[in-house]
Amino acid sequence: MPTAHKQEHKPVTKLSQKRSTSGVGHAREACALLWPQTLILFIDRQNKYKFFLYTKKARNNQRKFRSQLLLSFAMIQIEENADQNSPLLPAAAPPPRRRWAAAVDFFCILIGPASCAIVLVLVDIEGRPMARNVMAALVWVFAWWLTNAVPMPVTSMAPLFLFPLLGIESAQSVAKSYMDDIVALVLGTFILALAVEHYNIHRRLALNIALAFSPGDAMNAPLLLLGICSTTAFVSMWMHNTAATMLMMPVATGILPSSAHFELRQLSKGVVLGVVYSATIGGMSTVTGTGANLLLVGMWRSYFPLAKPIGFSTWFLFGFPMALILFLCLWTILCYFYCSRGSSEALSLHMDKTYLKRELENLGPMAWAEKMILIVFSTLVLLWMTRNLTDEVPGWGRLFKGQVGDGTVSVMMAMLLFVIPSKKKTGEKLMDWRKCERLPWNIVLLLGAGFAIADGVHLSGLTDELAKWLSFVEKTPWFIIPFIVSLVSSAITEFTSDNSTTILVVPLLIELAKAMDLHPLYLIVPGGLGSQFAFLLPTGTPSNVIALGTGRIQVMDMVKTGLPVKIAAHLALAFLMPTLGVAVFGTNEPL
Fold it and tell me: Which residue range(s) make up the domain with 193?
């Protein structure tokens, strides 16, 4: 960072404008201020460089600038022939890269196409060339997913060229997999989630719940932990669990400041683990909560287009009780490990209800924009829940002869945010496209890749061969099958993402269910949910990495807490699937 001469005690602002005669390209603009003890915020947008410098109190001019926050602006137009890529501030030199790192990167990149070529040349699947081609494409895609040789969204686009080139599907058919009702559901839901984040509604919700779970003036550590975890689980029901973790982690850690006190450090660990695990558990309860649920629902519709689709309300009737049981188990485990007898007393010494009320007052009263977003959000949930009810009491979807889906409603309600005024500025709406720049296109591409792979595996008959690897399940008693399936799926998901596990496991379980003459949902629901039981290692889900990134927990903390949570999840699923699952999904009826 450039520093000013120590002998100067006046802000030196210089405006120089140099017009370039070449007229080629765009000029770069910079705002610079020279002053001791400055903090620079650097923004780079569209080839324009701006420096906003906020000065602290000058040591030698305290009387003059005691209550003044100096903000000075100067524009310096740099000549067009300057190096556009050179930084305007001296940056720290990147750490030297080892020579073997480039070789490792090249090797990881080479694994994908090399493995694909080996499968094409050496593998023969009982005279099924298309199945062999699909396996070759899968080997390429999964090799890059596992090694992260290429960014995951880029790898997710590989089926768009691999499937047509290998003769699996036409380019038109593959492209359709990347935009269907499930993808529309994701886009609409994430736009609403971005609106919630933009207007700070999630923080207001967390503070209100923390106050509600704090009876009396003294703080209660287990109840505060319950409030933070329940808020995270609720938020995760309506957005991706990773996004919910990113939203709630700074809110939760901000409510509970770090401290050298042992009880508070332990409670802080419980809060961090509670946020990440509650986000995972809350995502299980709804279709929109996680990509694995969306993939499972989409694959079910792709394999069985004539069967009754899994709607939002259908999944909620099974997923919410499952998530509720698991959430209570999680809270009990967290209290046992991280809420000692002295934690409430130690917490009361550092914060109380007055602190929470002050933080809530800083947010101010709810504005028109926040109220309208809550109304739109509540209406969306209501429409999701009532689109399909029962055969005796049909939902509102019957009025449109079954032509509308959950994605239809999601996009429709999201578009309202671009129409309703925010009443903050003249002509400003609740949302504009600039606020949607962080839409999760990586999730969209991953879902498209999952649907394309599912179609290719199904059409080629590859699942018939791969399902033979799980033939040992056929000898298992039917009431133990959900436990075995979820156990296998959760073991895989500790080393890869839940989405990748779902893409791999669900087609195999469908073929296995056909061989065992069982309803496919009796196997794929435990398989899809089991892929989300990534409670032990950071590799299972990005949410776990976010938790480790706080610096408040270690891997062993995840293992110690995640193992009993994982056992409770398997037992709960093994109990609910043969009981509640039969009633909700109709697994005792013919397909």
Answer: 186-199+367-448
